[in-house]
Prior knowledge:
Blueprint: E1 10-13, H1 16-19, E2 36-40, H2 43-56, E3 59-63, E4 79-83, E5 92-94, E6 99-103, H3 108-117, E7 120-121, H4 134-140, H5 147-150, E8 157-163, E9 169-173, H6 185-189, E10 198-205, E11 207-208, E12 214-220, H7 224-227, H8 229-235, E13 242-246, H9 248-257, H10 260-263, E14 269-275, H11 283-293, E15 301-302, H12 306-326, E16 331-332, E17 335-336, H13 342-352, E18 357-361, E19 366-371, H14 379-395, H15 411-417, H16 420-433
Parallel strand pairs: 2-4, 3-4
Antiparallel strand pairs: 1-2, 5-6, 6-10, 7-11, 8-9, 8-10, 12-14, 12-15, 13-14, 13-18, 16-19, 17-19, 18-19
Helix pairs in contact: 13-14
The chain binds (2R)-2-hydroxypentanedioic acid and zinc ion.
Zinc ion (ZN) binds at residues 127, 360-361, 368, 403.
Amino acid sequence: MDLLRSLPDTTLLTELDALEPFRHDESHLVGHVPLGVVRPRSAAALRELVRLAKAEGFGLVPRGAGTGKAGGCVPTARTVVVDFSAWPGDLNVSSQDLALTAPASALLRDVKAAAIAEGLFYPPDPNSWESCALGGTLATNAGGPNACKYGMTRHWVLSVDALLEDGGIHTFGISSVKSNAGPALGQLLIGSEGIFGLIVGATLRLTPLPREYATLLLPVARWEDLLDLPGRLCGAGYLPSAFEFFDPAVLAELRAHGPEEARRLPGEALAILEFDERGCTSEPFLEGLLDLLGPVADGLEIASDERQRKGIWAVRRMTSAFLKERHPKKVSEDIVVPRSRLREFFAGLDRLGFPSVSYGHLGDGNLHVNLLAAGETDPALLERQLMDLFRLATSLGGTLSGEHGIGLAKRDAFLALSDPAHIQTLRALKRAMDPAGIFNPGKVI
Ligand code: 2HG
Ligand code: ZN
């Protein structure tokens, strides 16, 4: 699209070959070829882009590092991809305010490292944390293992800078945990997947860095024994900073085809438990924990140093990429059920009867149910299977997405399963904040 050439401070891609990678994220979806990809570097570029989008009637699809799992940055028809990778700005930590300011283009690993350099901690840790961009984590309200104790990205955002439909960049919130001057519009933008405006930067909340970790590898001889454990631990006052799991089916897949270290994984099912509070490596803490675990703890291994801790985590961190490489057309879900209902959920999943493997964040009930055969399954049947899965989660008081978001992948199911008043309210907000419909059209609602 020639008009895009007039944008100031912008790199423009229009060659078909160059556009191709922008049709994907890390979901199973393939989008339209965008009209172009722009990499803006100034507020003036964004102002002009909004003007052009309104005048010419094209949509703007925000993109960070493209590691999303729900198609949020996958282009719909007649859209331009706004790639924020060149958006300028520095990382600044204020240890007095326990705050960190960063542009959307910052990589999450650099954000986390900047906090650590000051003895501080930014907890959100989606599996893609080494390659994803901060902007993407804000737009999708990313989660990860640590959400079990620390909550989602939105709990760590003090203020948000966003491009709105007037073409300007506006800041919502202040650099303090206390800010209560009216409803929090910044929080509306977090997790909105760019449908209300495009996030260009944020000030994040930090906390002191944990000083010790107790990391436990817990193989179990009977898979069901794991399912009550998150609730039992929390009920007894033990809140893990992570409680991850592998069901028997994913473990069998990893053992049969995974890398060397995965082939040696013990148990019928397996959990990784981590605690990070002060004293968690002390004898009284661990003894109390072992008492609580009872016979389930029979094969327990405790990491005795950082190398062993990293070894335990490495297998968990590679699981999603390994499965994707082996089953490129797999469909991966991220449903949630309250921890008290995990047993009912897995009994229900068995009754549904379609093949799936599950792993993920047992501690907060956020389960990655993967349909590995999705590519070979009749599309209508696949859709029924997914709807059954979502209905099962919602019937137990859960939801269809815990951390990946709705994007394109779950839009139809979201519309079908939500309270109509919820959708009408979101659509009214969309009309108010984006009357021309330029921001990430066709996503979420
Ligand atoms: C993880 O926890 C990610 O590994 C990805 O959220 C999950 O792709 C998946 O199934
Ligand atoms: Zn996950």
